[in-house]
């Protein structure tokens, strides 16, 4: 991280407008190469050497420790240099400010990816307040509850199913496990984003939202506008648009999407299943753009919603499976290649039915609707009282429940260790 800070600080100075175009171009290329070189060595060297060894080459696979949060702080460092090069941000002369930006602890470990332009003013002149600390604490408690109560409970069910041999899977059980993982990764990842946004608020930073209820989407294109927004916009602004975006021929658009989604897949982890997961979404997005565009624009809302949920659930099987053979076996079981049900399905529903039901309203924008309802009636004594005191009281109750869950359970996975 210290090396990354130095690289991006020096590069930021060299790409500023006061230098010649040749110097600026050389500096930005060097910054990108060095940043990707660090990321490539720590995250991908072992993967590629292992694959070379599998095809018979005499290579040694080193055991390289992965620096925590390297994918996040590498992308942040590059975005800073690129924004200065483009003229969207001023070069920072104080290395401590660059170090603060790259090592900002609330979102360092699990995102969101914060642009320098978003926090530049706060780095220099942020204002902390009791009100901001309170709002941030409430947001943090809601995020913690998402993680401890919903994500971890769904994670137990998902792990129970995904650790079964393929021969033991049934249609209903495989769907149950895939749906549980679908809920786990959403509540887990959005919980970390909520906690990061809350912590940032407590210290005077305003991070942008990273999730916007993605499971209500009616197309995969819309889904990726709502899911991990900071990553999607990063690849859009720094890879897709520079490659030409949509302002080019159809063949070039296909190439651009394949590049972006290959990189998106590999960003999530050094394994072939992540690459296939990225290409899977590239294929669907290309079909939405060129094949079934009419259905996406004019099809029945319910049918489009079902299509998105089925596509996303199948995609998460790629993401969660430990091997391609298991992924294929799981998908076969889900779509009829196994017995329909057995006793374990009934047992799982009895044990985890409550969290599956609780996950449905928690993934819908009910909180926003309630907030809008209360805002319109804020002058009412009763509704004003509820609006003032309910969020804090609920947050404290959720904090207690989360703490009880934390100390009473040994299952508390961190599923972003690959990042």
Write the layout of secondary structure elements.
Blueprint: H1 2-14, H2 21-54, H3 70-86, H4 95-102, H5 105-108, H6 116-125, H7 130-162, H8 171-202, H9 220-226, H10 229-243, H11 250-268, H12 272-290, H13 293-298, H14 301-320, H15 324-334, H16 343-362, H17 366-375, H18 381-408
Helix pairs in contact: 1-2, 1-3, 1-4, 2-3, 7-8, 7-16, 7-18, 8-14, 8-15, 8-16, 10-11, 11-12, 12-14, 14-15
Keywords:
419 residues; 2 domains
**Terminal-residue CA separation:** 14 Å
Structural class: mainly alpha
Major beta sheet, specifics?
Answer: none
Uncertain parts: none
Domains, number: 2
Provide the helix percentage: over 70%
In round numbers, the mean pLDDT is 90
Overall strand count: 0
What percent of residues are in strands? under 5%
Secondary-structure element series:
HHHHHHHHHHHHHHHHHH
Discrete helix count? 18
Rounded Rg:
23 Å
Query: What's the overall geometry?
Result: globular
Structural summary, described in words:
The protein has 419 residues and is mainly alpha-helical. The chain has two domains: 2-103, no CATH class; 131-346, no CATH class. Helix content is 73%, strand content 0%. It contains 18 helices and no strands. The protein has helices at 2-14, 21-54, 70-86, 95-102, 105-108, 116-125, 130-162, 171-202, 220-226, 229-243, 250-268, 272-290, 293-298, 301-320, 324-334, 343-362, 366-375, 381-408. The longest helix has 34 residues, at 21-54. It is globular, with a radius of gyration of 23 Å. The mean pLDDT is 90.
